[in-house]
Amino acid sequence: MGALFSVAEIRQAEQAAAAQLAPGTLMQRAGQVAARIAIDLLGETPAPPVLVLAGPGNNGGDALEVAANLAQAGVDVTVVHLACVGDPSAETAHALAKARASTAEFTDALPAGGPWALVVDGLFGIGLARPVQGEARAMIEAVNALDCPVLALDVPSGLDADSGAVIGPDGVAVRATHTVTFIGNKPGLHTFGGRDYAGEVLVARLGIAEDMLPGASVHLNEPHLFDLAFVARLHDSHKGSFGDVAVVGGARGMAGAPILAAKAALFSGAGRVYVASIDHGPAYDNAQPELMFRDAANHNFDGSTIVAGPGMGDSATAIRVLARALDGDSPLVLDADALNLIAASPDLQSRLSARHASSILTPHPLEAARLLGVTAGVIQGDRLEAAREIAARFDAYVVLKGSGTIIAMPDGEAAINPTGNPGLASAGTGDVLAGLCGSLMAQGWPARDAALAAVWMHGEAADRLVAQGAGPIGLTAGELPEAIRAVLNRMVAERPKRAGQPQS
Ligand SMILES: NC(=O)C1=CN([C@@H]2O[C@H](COP(=O)(O)OP(=O)(O)OC[C@H]3O[C@@H](n4cnc5c(N)ncnc54)[C@H](O)[C@@H]3O)[C@@H](O)[C@H]2O)[C@@H](O)CC1
Ligand SMILES: Nc1ncnc2c1ncn2[C@@H]1O[C@H](COP(=O)(O)OP(=O)(O)O)[C@@H](O)[C@H]1O
Ligand SMILES: [K+]
Fold it and tell me: What pLDDT sits at residue 502?
């Protein structure tokens, strides 16, 4: 469930399956299933024509199969086919002959006409090797200017199915409303540009047996991955049963960031929440008087889960307190300035690598870039690989934030998060996520489950707020903790009653 496969893994499965089938079977199945989806998308509306774009390779072959199937179903179809330089594959040649023999109308250039009821994008799939240029590029730009549903076959043309990056320094890709992806789901449809370019993703296995695909090391982040960690509360419990969280941060001028993290910890069930301020912090927070304020330099963190970084700054005190936190045996969440300080200090890096207790690192792409000594562009170019590299380097759980957040485990497993929306793109939402991660660990959750669940619930909370009209425009970080509380309580209530300590 939710497995994601690299292009190399899909290619292997495709070859193994094709060897056992009559030539062209997989392409015909792809054409049939995509045509059915196209007909569903057309709905009841009679008959503006469907435009099918067929590229030079086998993705184009799929598109030609779709065109033939749609024509056979009585749909008015126009096909633009970009012929390949050499000979097409035998199955593509066969699909071309079939489409030519159908009622589908072929034209050489993108017709100026329309309106189209639907565009089917079969220009390029997983075989795209370089940036799209020339005629195909002009077609993609024209399709992106249309206001109709677009069904991409396998992958939106121009998108890298492994990474979610548009191929090329100045590349273009089709912005689809729907993508039917073949054989197995692909990571690039769910992270970085993937969510914007792929739209709704449907997986068509093409009848390929599960055992033809390798065991996946990457999955969509779904509740079944962290289900066992949800526990109902016993009546016979007290605040000490649910752990202490200490948020370390709040240098001068940045006192709000740790308060947001602390509020998230409080609203997600931590028993006691402290804000340990780097500079002299407030005595208390009028809006959240449950929070206890301490001076970080003198605070004893023993027994607390530490969330270090929100608004922490780079003072000598910040470095000293961070070194102490890294050396201790408390579970630790490292965010924001804590990550920047670690990136700049080989000494702090070795303290992090040497930890025995769990650490969750929550970098955004620029913080990840600093940790690896590269640019944010390099990180975004392969988010999965970047998150895994940081996890391996520091033997830690890594949450690489952004659209399609990656959660990478030190053992190489990874997940891509499907919840959340651009309402989260505002200051402070990352502080809330860090506080939530810390709170779940303080309540006894293993770091893996805490990272997966925190990211999922944080996004789900934002999605619920948007559904209520509180975003995406103008959604504030301060609104998230209450929405997260609702998500968390619902998750616990909906699951089989399991009281006591979380299990994994
Ligand atoms: N062979 C089969 O039986 C099956 C093929 N399938 C489809 O086949 C696709 C993969 O097919 P291919 O390997 O032929 O690859 P694609 O069709 O994705 O693209 C490769 C073709 O595009 C050309 N090309 C690559 N980059 C280009 C660029 N920037 N500008 C212009 N031309 C460029 C190549 O020379 C080649 O002709 C999958 O994505 C899937 O849609 C699936 O239906 C599964 C079954
Ligand atoms: N476009 C988006 N879609 C989904 N999630 C997003 C988007 N933009 C930001 N987020 C999420 O919002 C949070 C932002 O965190 P961060 O960049 O650290 O901000 P800050 O430091 O201001 O709190 C992360 O959880 C990130 O994954
Ligand atoms: K495509």
Answer: 58
- Please check if 364 is assigned to a binding site: yes
**What rounded mean pLDDT belongs to the chain?**
95
**What homologous superfamily is domain 223-494 in, according to CATH?**
Ribokinase (3.40.1190.20)
Distance 405 CA to ligand 2 centre (A): 9
Distance 62 CA to ligand 3 centre (A): 9
What pLDDT does residue 12 have? Answer: 95
Q: Give the closest residue to 335 by CA, choosing from 355, 356, 306.
A: 306
Using a pLDDT cut of 70, give the percent of the chain over it: 98
Residue of 364, 417, 452 to mutate, ligand 2, most atoms within 8 A of C-beta: 364
Which whole number is the average pLDDT over 250-275?
Answer: 96
Residue 498: what pLDDT? 74
Domain boundaries, the chain: 3-216, 223-494
403 lines ligand 2 (CB under 6 A): yes
| pLDDT score, position 46 | 64
Tell me, using a 6 A CB cutoff, whether residue 97 lines ligand 1: no
Q: Residue 125, annotated ligand binder?
A: yes
Residues in a beta bridge with 77 = 50
Residue 414 Cβ inside 6 Å of ligand 2? The answer reads no
Average pLDDT over residues 447-458: 98
Higher pLDDT, 32 or 113: 32
Q: Please say whether the beta carbons of 52 and 80 come within 8 A.
A: yes
Mean pLDDT of 150-169: 97
Confidence of residue 132 (pLDDT cuts 50, 70, 90): very high
Q: What is the arithmetic mean of pLDDT over 156-178?
A: 97
Whether ligand 1 lies within 6 angstroms of the CB of 127 is answered as yes
CB of 18 closer than 6 angstroms to any ligand 1 atom: yes
Q: Which helix (H) or strand (E) holds 180?
A: strand 178-182
Cβ of 478 closer than 6 Å to ligand 2, yes or no, is no
Q: What is the pLDDT of residue 504?
A: 45
Lookup: tokens for 195 = 């969510």
Ligand-binding annotation for 430, yes or no, is yes
Question: Distance, CA 383 to ligand 3 centroid (Å)?
Answer: 22
Q: Looking at the predicted structure, is the pLDDT value of residue 457 above 60?
A: yes
Which of the four CATH numbers 3.40.50.720, 3.40.50.10260, 3.40.50.2300, 3.30.360.10 does domain 3-216 have?
3.40.50.10260
Give the Cα-Cα-Cα angle 465, 470, 472 (nearest 5 degrees).
85
Give the span between the Cα atoms of 188 and 194, in whole angstroms.
Answer: 5
Going across the sheet that includes 178-182, the strands are 105-107, 77-81, 50-54, 118-122, 150-153, 178-182, 200-204
**What pTM did the predictor assign?**
0.96
Nearest 10 degrees: Cα torsion 65, 6, 12, 154:
0
